[in-house]
Design a protein that fits this description.
heterodimer; A: mainly alpha; 8 helices; 0% strand; B: mainly alpha
Chain lengths: 218, 151
Amino acid sequence: MTAVEPGGATRWDLATRLFHWALVVLAVFSFVTGTIGGQWMSWHLKSGYAILALLVFRLMWGFAGTHEARFATFLRGPGAVVAYAKRLWHGEYAPHHGHNPLGGWMVVLMLAALAFQAGTGLFSNDEIATEGPLASKVSNAMVDRMSALHDYNQWLIVTLVVVHIAAVFAYRWRFGVNLVAPMLKGPSGGTARLAVAGVLLAIAAAAVYWLVAVYPRP
Amino acid sequence: MKTQWKWIAAALCASAIAHAQQPVKPENQVKFRKSAYQVMNYSLDTLEAMGQGKQPYAKDEAAKLADILLQVSILPQRFFGEGTGGGETRAKPEIWTHRADFDKKMDAMIREAQKLPAAARSGDIAALKKAVGDVDEACKSCHDEYRVKRK
């Protein structure tokens, strides 16, 4: 069970929190290694695989995870989103159980942008000595296209991250709500849920391993 | 008689200079530098694969490719003459307005390439991987500044 704290913020379960911070670390690591290049490109690829596995996990967790983590719980129609945004605009804060209607779509946008990044990366190269595991399966024209998209999309992700962090600060300053603390500390979610998360993560990792290491083998 | 020798000497000198500066027309400069890069790309790809264990390390082959890369690494610089920024090229015009920096980056790449043959012969996969990574990084630093990105 996830309880709403007096401040109104949701208390996230351990699996969701670990997912969040692992994604933060890996996304930053990917950005830095991709920018430096050279020695770091092999790590850039590995980091991308790990992100892909996390995203596959999160997709499954969105159907089989805790109540707050499920897409069905936090994806609301345009009416609810607009209504929530209007209230925010007028300085009213309504505590939400789990993601608020606006934040819910931000989650989807963020996950989609990251999935697009990981997906295009599989088919990209850097025109020096590094190529994604599936680049040899497609034409050079396709590799060029994917590489260009991989390059552009990083800035969309950076933008989303900036908006995300700005929103966290805005809630803090405008409404005095600390959104960081519940992402750090919270309930475990129970052993059974954690076990489910572990199994889902293992399935995701195996699927990605097959995609990047087994399937491309000549 | 004396005058004649002078003219012959002058003609020989002129021909020697002309020979040293055999002009390559811009279109071919673009073609040659691209070809050089492609050979370097192939060599580095293969060495990278060996360094990462994606391809078995074979000392002779690694040494051969490292030598080829080093030999070819001095070529691209020759074919970035004035007026070779047009046509089928992704070379940015900044190359010719920031020539000193461009040449510095080229030299850095050649310096890294010079370390490659020894690393390839060392039998030390980690050393090979490191040397390949250093060449890679030198390539990238120039691409980032002076090569038009793919669209």
